[in-house]
Design brief:
Rossmann fold, Alpha-Beta Plaits, 2 domains, 11 helices, globular, binds adenosine-5'-triphosphate, binds magnesium ion
């Protein structure tokens, strides 16, 4: 394995359930050492794709290669080199933090000193030192997620698959979880490559852990090094956040803080439908309105006038860098 070889390569991956296509012709590459996000709404095919990458489910067609191996034929060989935190991750709630880590470590075949060392590292990484004896059920959702992540990487996998690790967690804990992921892929927490640990030839050249993470929170897209956005089984955006923004946006975004945001959206959508304003999108973001138009520099004045004529003051209107959320909404409507 060399550094150039991708951690994961999905080639025309397709999964059908009867005549329903859950994943359709999905292609992507995950580079070693990156945090790759797999974003999509509920039921878009994220978990199905992960299951195929783990060798838990056979693709209907196409193939997936993880760490240089075709998963289809090598699921058991690849297993020790990957970690998996499933969507409804399964910690034992009646066990303590330490008992859970011991359980998972033993399940991965860790023993004695290595098990103890890895557990100690895991506790430090998750910030759970001093809570070893807390019952898992008494931890908050955010802490349980950190514990589940530590359990999934106890055996020092090279690639870790996290299926919606932040679902249902408050924004502060979500942020903390992402910080933990950055630590995981950063050199400060670089874990020895599997082959080195096993006394084999040193491979990989020391890239950090590779993280494949799914989420339905669009704001988390900005945290990924690169990402794919999947909708109804198909990838509709792929690349780094900057690449996706520059490649996909059908115009520029005007951000307005109107005196009445809901009324502003109604007025602008009506103007869009009647054809009096050549704009592409109007979206409400709390008290702000985002308008997308192909030639915003020329449209801004007309948009402001339209609002003014409807008795709405358009304060702080300015062209902004689109967020990925803007881009996805724009792409999903295309
Ligand atoms: N074993 C199965 N048999 C039939 N349909 C399935 C099966 N597994 C998944 N599906 C369907 O395939 C689609 C994709 O499901 P999947 O679980 O991959 O989505 P997801 O993106 O992970 O969604 P969520 O965000 O809800 O977890 C859904 O419509 C789902 O109902
Ligand atoms: Mg899922």
């Amino acid at each position: 394995m060399n550094d150039q070889q991708p951690a994961i390569l999905a080639n025309s991956l397709t999964k059908r359930f009867g005549d329903f296509t859950a994943v359709e012709d999905v292609n992507f590459e995950v580079r070693r050492g990156e945090i790759f996000g797999f974003l999509g709404p509920n039921g878009s095919g994220k978990t199905t794709t992960i299951r195929m990458m783990l060798g838990l489910m056979k693709p209907t067609s196409g193939e997936v290669n993880v760490l240089g191996m075709d998963v289809n034929g090598n699921a058991t060989r690849i297993r020790p080199r990957i970690g998996y935190m499933s969507q409804r991750f399964s910690l034992y709630n009646d066990l303590t933090v330490l008992q859970n880590l011991n359980f998972y470590g033993a399940a991965y075949g860790l023993k004695n000193q290595e098990l103890q060392e890895n557990i100690r590292d895991a506790l430090v990484m998750a910030g759970l030192e001093g809570r070893e004896n807390a019952k898992t059920k008494d931890l908050s959702g955010g802490w349980r997620q950190r514990l589940a992540l530590s359990a999934a990487i106890l055996h020092r996998p090279e690639v870790v698959f996290l299926d919606e690790p932040t679902a249902g967690v408050d924004p502060v804990s979500r942020r903390a979880f992402w910080d933990l992921l950055y630590e995981l892929v950063s050199t400060s927490l670089r874990l020895p490559p599997f082959s080195e640990k096993m006394g084999g030839e040193k491979e990989g050249g020391g890239a950090g852990v590779t993280v494949f993470v799914t989420t339905h929170y669009m704001d988390e897209a900005e945290h990924c090094h690169r990402l794919a956005f999947i909708q109804r089984g198909k990838i509709i955006a792929y690349g780094s956040p900057a690449e996706i923004k520059s490649g996909m946006m059908r115009g520029q975004v005007l951000e307005i803080a109107p005196s009445d945001a809901v009324a502003a959206v109604r007025v602008l959508r009506a103007a869009q439908e009647s054809g009096s304003l050549p704009i592409e999108e109007v979206e409400l973001y709390g008290s702000l309105v985002h308008v997308v138009a192909p030639d915003m520099k020329r449209q801004q004045r007309a948009i402001e006038n339209t609002l003014r004529q409807a008795g709405i003051r358009a304060e702080h209107a300015g062209i902004i860098e689109p967020s990925l959320e803007d881009v996805f909404i724009s792409a999903m409507k295309a």
